[in-house]
Each structure stands twice: as C-alpha cells, then as structure tokens.
Amino acid sequence: MATLEVFIRVLGFHIILITQQKFIQGYVDQNTIYNPCKSQPTLIQDAITIGVAFIGDITTWYNNSDVRSNVLSPCEAPLADKLTNVGFISIFRPQIDQLTLLNVDNGSLISLSHTFAQTVSLLLYAQGMNTTILAGPRSFMNSYGMVPSFTTIIDFQNGFLKNFTWKDDECLDCAQSSMCLDNNCVDPQDRCTADSTNSSSCHFSINLAFSGTDRKKKPLQSWYQISRTGRFSLTNIYQKVKNDIIISIITVGNAIDSPPPLG
C-alpha cells in the first residue's frame, strides 16, 4: 500500500489530493479524458476527472437564485461564464475505488474568505453517460466559521458516473461552540481568515469513496470502508499519514545535513 500526494494548481488555487492506492505493476490508466464535462467510461484503477467549483452564496448555483429550482451546471452557460469571471474551478483525478482525501490548503481558504466575504459554497461535477452529474451545492464557510470536512460517495453504473451522494453528519455531534450549516457542524475558526494563519491551523477536506460497478461490471467497494471507519476518523487517518511523511522527510533532511562522524 502506497500513499500518493499530488499538488494541483488551477487558476491560482491550491489543492492537495491524498489517495491511498494499491498499485498494479504494469497497469496504465486508460482514461484519457481530462475534461469533467466529457463522458468518461472507467475501470477500477483508472482515474476519473472531477471538477470542484467554489463561489459565494449558495443561491448562485440555482436558476434565478431560487433554491427550489434546478441546479445550474458548471458545464453550461450562464454558470460556466460566471465561474470563469468570479469563481474558482479546480480539476482533480481520484483513482477509481480508492479512498481519497481532497484537501484545500490554508492559503486557498484565506483567498476564498476574502473574495466572497466569508460566505463560500462549493459544487462537485463530472459527466455521466448523457448528462452532467452534480453533487448538490454545499455551504462550508460563513462569518462564524467553517465545516472542516465533507464526505461524498461517487456511484457508478457499468463504468459511467451515475450519482454523487453527500453523507452529512446531521449535526448530531456538534460541540457546544459549533453551529449547524447545511446539516454539518461548523467550527468557529476566525484564525482561518487571518493572513498570518499558520498552514496547519485550519483545513477543509472532502473524503471520497466509490460504489456501483466499473465498465466490466466489477463492483466498487471503497464506500464500505467509509461506513466502517467513519468520516472523522478517515480524515484523521489521512492527516496522520501526511504528518508521518513530513516528519520522515525532515528526519532524512536532518540526517543529510548532520551526518554522523565516520569511524
């Protein structure tokens, strides 16, 4: 089992993609589609191209700002034009049926907070067989604080994306200092909006898991690991892995800078 950390920068936006992968010797990713607005039939071990779009108030995602109407698609005008002008769009490629953590770094959180006056929402999207599949818009930052993480299950049918399903925590375990936003706990994190914030003091992440079948009808089962570990413990697992990697790099660096005396 190996852990791969990929840094992606799109439109000045930083995302860290941490994925726990089982590498098959000689396997080549067969998905050559890098546009989330194009159909991409996939197999296990392929990667899928998914877009994540960030903008201000959640009503922006709806036609005429009416939350009772259909959600607008980032793949179609007028939302595509609006995102180009005032939003942030990043593209990432998680590997099919591997637990993945999409982690937005602190600098990007500060940028989002300043750009949208501390009110930020997001939407995930990718192309299915005949239409763009959207993960319903979610607010994750307001003037009080920020939702630390979301979890979504990505469902496939014979290799084609069928659905995104958010797994909300329903605010059942919010601390006394927390509030509820879109069925998720919001932690007070004023420090995350300060330009002097240390990169380790706040973070936002999306846990990804997969269900359904690939294009050879092989079942995808990483969603079961989510149900066993739980959203918060999964986030902690990845954070520990990342910290262990950083500690290992620092240790190796110190050993190189200060080698032991010979003899």
TrEMBL record:
Superkingdom classification of source: Eukaryota
Name under which the protein is recorded: Uncharacterized protein
Species the sequence originates in: Riccia fluitans
